Amino acid sequence: MAKDGSSIPDEEWERFLREAEAGTKDAPEEPSARARMVARRLREEPGTPEGWRTHQPVRRRRNKIWYVAGLLVAVGLLVVALAPGRVAGWLPGGDGGGDDAPLAAETNRPDKPPATAAADQLPTVDHPFRGSPAERWADGTAGISLPAARATGWMNKDQVAQALARSRDFLVESSLDPGVLRGERPRKAIALINPHQKDVADFLATAFRAPSREDDPLLLFSRFDTSKVRLVGDVIKTRGRVTYREGERGAVEVTTDVTYVYPVVRAAGGSDEVARTIVRREVVMSWDDPAKVVTEKGTLSLVSYKVDTANGGCDTFTGYLTPEFSAEQATSGPGDGAEVDPYDRSDSMDERMRKDRDEGCGTATRT
Predict the structure, then answer these.
(1) What average pLDDT score do residues 341-349 get?
(2) What does DSSP assign to residue 49?
(3) What is the percent of the chain where pLDDT is above 70?
(4) I need a surface site. Which of 137, 151, 189, 258 has the fewest CB within 10 A?
């Protein structure tokens, strides 16, 4: 940022305009989330791309809860007889350990949903994750595992490691920061976004001033209205993966797919009924080569962002997650969309979106 407050120095801006107008091959480009999204979609799914914000970002949300040979064989049989629980953890989709053991980090997409707990295991203020798969998930940042760094695109190994760590910082500041969860503006997260992305800057400005279906801050940030609900304790359960590859013009493109579980009670004093809001977000970020893209040091460009929410509100665009408790659930029926287990991470976000696009409010099979 130039000292006079302009986005880039005048001489650099004039050089950019001259080179861009002349079609200079190596002229820095202003980043556009829309352009990145279309190019990425064309690479991955050949065909006619959809319009900006018609599929990218996707904003479907749910809020209805409707409970609805030889020696080896011999050794194997002996192990099954002596330790059947351990064998179960070796099977496809198994998570290892006993039913109460913490899960290992998610390094690949699982092949099936997690097991269903007994229906009578209801959450309490002292045990807000009881009865849900999240009880075995890691706390906060520990659930967002990072892959090993390697030289990619314009970055060396150390630079990639830093980009991965900064990408996780964005997730922490946008979805785990206590102030943001209390409804404060996510200033630290926004400061990590390349200010030269005009479409993203416009989205952010509108989303906090006048949230709507098209401009919803919940696409990127988790926020609760503290006049209505408050978080239980200071632990948010998380589970997710971070991957990366070389993107456009040698950039390092980082994809994050994380599920967050937020336990809440009503804000009114004495309330002890615990409800859980589950938010799954996929955020794709690009760490651009400053020689090829107009950017600021230490900032990322957003390529895409998608969200799928259970018990967080549906068609209620207030800028806050709005969980329901038993009283509201008793007077509301199931959603008009597909039934989905919000803890199921065996499908990709694109698959999740395709299942229920344009189907209205879906039905969460559990929270």
Answers:
(1) 94
(2) P
(3) 70
(4) 151
